[in-house]
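Late entry, written up from scratch paper. The run itself happened at the end of the previous shift, but nothing got recorded in the book at the time, so transcribing now.
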Amino acid sequence: MTSTPRDAADDAVTERFLSYRELLFSVVYNMLGSVADTEDVLQEVWLAWSARHRKPDTQPVDNPRAYLVRIAVNQALASRADLSRRQETYVGPWLPEPLVTDEGDVTGAVERAESLSMAVLVVLETLSPLERAVFVLHEVFGFGHPEIAGILDRSPAAVRQLAARARRHVHARRPRHRTEPDIHAQVTERFAAAALGGDLTALLEVLAPEVTLWTDGGGKGPATSLQPVHGRDQVAALFMSVAATLPTDGLDIRYRRVAGDPCALVFSGDSPLAAVVVDLTPDGDRIAGIYSVTNPDKLTGIR
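Output as recorded:
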């Protein structure tokens, strides 16, 4: 069966969209922090993109990348309102949905590595939707202020103001420091072994005095606390109580990367129980923050 010119045109439209899909995914995920909502947005972007090309009098898109990013960002802003309403009634702390990087998918891994760390994504939740969009587009993906102005239908001056406010806000709550990946991975493994093994001495050694634990169970998964827990002794005591209730066999810890962070994935058989990411102190040898996601709805993509 031979293909028609219409078929060839449809294939070209599809291939062009797919060539930018990972970029669009990373932009939207950094704006929303939800894999499921990101996939919904991309579906809407695809429908708009394909519908445009089905119109017989449609003019060619001069810059498909900018065109698709504009649709994706504005659709994400619309979805942000619904996501914020759901967060208002969420049980306990809300954390971003873990985005596990598939090491076998080289193209996807490169784009998704642009996703921000769990700690930064948590800080971005305190920005306005427009501030977050500008921060993600400019600071993460390198879009210029004039280009962002076109995407958001704002003036360049307004975009610069949004960018300055967002940058000040993020840097005040998340000072810039970069931990060597190998050290971050080693500390993550030391923490997981101590916490799940019930080794109080080893756990106290790896926790900073002012450590904070956030646990997102969403009222469905095992949540150690419905409020953030502050302080090394309190956090260690909580993990000791959790370790005492865990089964002695059947648990498996797998180490992967979640967005930009090393992550300990806790499994019971083939079922994920938790995704745990730690944030290190500026000197990089102790844990300042622990983010534990146990809501099963947020672990469905983890294998």
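The chain has two domains: 5-173, 181-298.
(Scratch paper discarded after transcription.)
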